[in-house]
Amino acid sequence: MTLAEDSTASTADNFAVLHRVDEHDCLEFARALTDRGHDVYFVNWRDIDIPAQRVDRAFVRNRGEFRKSIPCAAFDLVFIYKMEGFLHDQERFFDMIERCCRMVINTKATIRSNIDKSYLFAFAASGVPVIPSYRLSMARGSHGPSEIADIGNALHAMAKSAVLKPLRAERGDGIFELDATDGNERWRAALSRIEPNLYLAQEYIPSVRDGERSLA
After folding, report:
1. Which residue among 64, 90, 114 closes a domain?
2. Per the domain annotation, does 173 fall within a domain?
3. Nearest CA to 151 among 120, 112, 196, 106?
4. What span, in angstroms and rounded, lies between the C-alpha atoms of 125 and 195?
5. Does 161 lie in the same domain as 147?
6. pLDDT tens digit string along 76-89?
7. Of these four, 63, 76, 98, 167, which has the most CB atoms within 10 Å of its CB?
């Protein structure tokens, strides 16, 4: 199971998960697997030697110890879970999936698809209920500021707050909210600061402030 590691807090007998909120999931997953007799390894993806197809360092959760130099082929199943910085090193990320993960959750095709939030439009086209989402797919080089302003006017005219978010991001990076009561100028100014073809807009759902649940 790949995890984001707090390397400053890890010890000889413990793999420290970087974000405490992730512990709720990963420790439950590990417990369920070990209860069924499996060894569970926590791996910092930076400790994977991709050319050699080897994990240089891994924590065996049910044994409470680190092991070194494990062939990737020794793992029956790889769970690509929480990782840090993979979007800024996508070439290495996909190389790892292709070369070091013979059986992976989710499938390699699903992982590639889910990296980009464009799947939301495919869901909507298939009738799956999703938060209303809007493409901002234009390149500023070939479209003028007036068209960017038109997007702002259209979203503002809905009289709903919106969230602008990158199509590819992790842990909320690059996301900001526009309030329905803001003037058109603020909406246009916000849109002019981003690369529209790399972003989408969604209606803001106030209940997200109460917390949210993921369905797997």
Report:
1. 114
2. yes
3. 196
4. 24
5. yes
6. 999 988 888 888 88
7. 167
Domain end marker among 99, 114, 129: 114
Residue numbers of the domain that contains 195: 119-210
Q: How many domains does the chain have?
A: 2
Amino acid identity, residue 154?
A: A
Q: Which two tokens stand for residue 119?
A: 């799947």
**Is-above-0.90 flag for pTM?**
no
Which of 159, 206, 204 is closest to 181 using CA atoms?
159
pLDDT in tens, 177-198: 878 777 667 777 777 777 777 8
Angstrom CA distances, 81 to 26, 29, 45, 159, stand at: 8, 11, 10, 38
Q: Cβ distance 163 to 177 under 8 Å?
A: yes
CB 43 within 8 A of CB 55: yes
| Residue matched to tokens 């699903």 | 110
